[in-house]
Here is the input.
Amino acid sequence: MTEIAGNDPVRCKCACCGTDEKALLKQIRTIAESYREREGSLIQVLHMAQGIYGYLPLEVQRAVADGLGIPLSEVSGVVSFYSFFSTQPRGKHTIRVCLGTACYVRGGKQIVERLCELLHVNVGDTTADRMFTFEVARCIGACGLAPAMAIDNRVYKQVNPDRLEHILARYYQEGEERP
Ligand code: FES
Here is the structure.
């Protein structure tokens, strides 16, 4: 089983960088400026910007555009084209419930419904505490042990909806145990 790789943005907490929004935007713009002369670096810079800020709202896109010296429309076009870029805040962890055929017929829908209840969100939403973003997927490669879901890179097979509460609780506990 693969260890969890969350969506937690990597934010420098040193005195020079700070963590407030203005400082983060400045940091992103500075990074983008350093790529100004490198053609074709927009996607790479956007990945870094998303890593720093957590997602790519318009003000972050503007910082990237200003830093790279390109039009905002070009940046926005790329952001909206690629699904790995998000313009909405994302949770620390991403839950993907498989609704591919094998999982659907073996109870995928019940898993979705139970998670909606437990997390108080709909599919596509992020929980109010920014812990989880909840999505569905077509197939996550565990059809033989359906129904399946993934949280970040960890795949859960033969998921029992009654066990979901326990599974989610582990992620909250792991957060508490971190220094
Ligand atoms: S259909 Fe669900 S893992 Fe393939």
